[in-house]
Specification:
Order of helices and strands: EEHEEE
Helix content: 10-25%
Strand content: 35-45%
Structural class: alpha+beta
Strand order of the largest sheet: 2-1-5
Length: 76
């Protein structure tokens, strides 16, 4: 992507389950140049270390669909 001058926003979608874990991350928007895969890899790393607060509806924990934009901007 750097060699081709590609930058942009990748969007990864995933579900945060009732226990706060990331489930089934997939690329929703890929600007090209392997940036979508890089964004997916970043979210998969988050799966190992990050626990989110699950959603709540009527006082009960529920699954939540989340779309995470990841911005790629070339430096210099």
């Amino acid at each position: 992507a750097r060699e081709s001058g590609i930058e942009g926003t990748a969007v990864v979608t995933f579900v945060i389950n009732k226990s706060g874990d990331i489930v089934n991350p997939t690329v929703l928007r890929d600007p090209g140049g392997m940036l979508g895969q890089a964004a997916l890899d970043a979210v998969k790393e988050m799966q190992k270390t990050t626990i989110f607060n699950p959603g709540k509806q009527n006082g009960k924990q529920v699954r939540v669909l989340f779309n995470m934009p990841i911005y790629f901007k070339l430096q210099g």
